[in-house]
Specification:
About 30% of the residues lie in helices and about 25% in strands. Helix 4 links the parallel strand 10 and strand 11 (about 185). It is built from seven helices and 16 strands. It is globular, with a radius of gyration of 18 Å. It is an alpha+beta fold.
């Protein structure tokens, strides 16, 4: 089966209406998940014991499915907590869902977790929402609208060439920056939820984040759109935008950054990683 190509969104679709749909569903899923938070929910391990999943993940996933799939029966479905159905590859449009992004943080009682829901059309996100109920934060965007946090428009940072850059990254990736750039990098503490970390770049609290290999569509799709509409970029280290809803939903190393610093960061990382 052929993988979908990334194309410009179709203007005939009501993406703003889809945003309202997924926002309502994500809020309800967040309400349900918050009821488990701090209550020591049951936890299982998947992926050969490498990844935890809690009762809250499954409960939130059920809420999202119940709200979204009947509302758009022609849309495909891709969720971290639902067995993958290859039929999604024949769908131009689908929901891409992470019921709780940051499950480890959730289990540990940390507030940095969120519900991530996106609508993806022809390989690109066209509506996205992140709901972080423990933090009382909600990020939204659609393809023709602004990125917003709690109803207020957000934009990425715009640091000048002399400023330090706040970058969330593993230490070994920071070491791969060019020697000229490395002194400007201020490595910040780990943010457990990848989607929320990307949102912090979108609203300017971070200048950039580097993403290790093996992130997934459901970690990225909603936050990718929010970041893009806020003036940032999320790409691989060759500077290529991501394509969603392929047969493989994992991605290689990525760089997310304010548009002001993205070219410099990717240039440095690309040169070192290829040597």
């Amino acid at each position: 089966m052929l993988e979908p190509e990334s194309k410009a969104p179709d203007d005939s679709f009501n993406w703003a209406g889809d945003l309202e749909l997924i926002r309502s569903a994500a809020r309800e899923a967040g309400r349900i998940a918050l009821g488990f938070f701090g209550q020591e929910p049951e936890v299982w391990w998947k992926n050969e014991g490498r990844s935890p999943v809690s009762a809250a993940d499954y409960a939130a996933n059920q809420v999202l499915e119940a709200h979204l799939r009947p509302a758009r029966p022609s849309y495909g479905w891709l969720s971290e907590e639902t067995d993958d159905d290859p039929a999604r590859l024949s769908c131009e449009t689908l929901f891409v869902v992470d019921p709780i992004d940051g499950t480890r943080a959730f289990i540990a009682g940390k507030q940095t977790w969120c519900i991530s829901v996106a609508v993806v059309h022809k390989g690109a996100p066209v509506a996205g929402v992140l709901v972080a109920p423990a933090l009382n934060e909600e990020f939204t965007a659609w393809i023709d609208g602004p990125a917003m946090r709690n109803g207020e428009t957000i934009t990425v940072s715009n640091p000048d060439a002399r400023q330090h850059l706040k970058v969330a990254s593993a230490q070994d990736m920071v070491a791969r920056f060019s020697p000229a750039l490395r002194p400007r990098i201020e490595r910040v503490a780990h943010v457990p939820s990848l989607a929320y970390r990307l949102a912090l770049v979108a609203d300017g609290r971070l200048d950039a984040t580097l993403v290790l290999p093996n992130s997934h569509d459901w970690d990225l799709a909603a936050a990718d759109l929010i970041l893009t509409r806020a003036g940032g970029r999320l790409t691989d280290l060759d500077g290529e935008a991501l394509i969603y809803n392929r047969k493989s939903v994992t991605h290689e190393e990525l760089c997310a950054a304010s548009g002001a610093v993205w070219p410099e960061l990717v240039k440095g990382l690309t040169r070192i990683s290829r040597s």
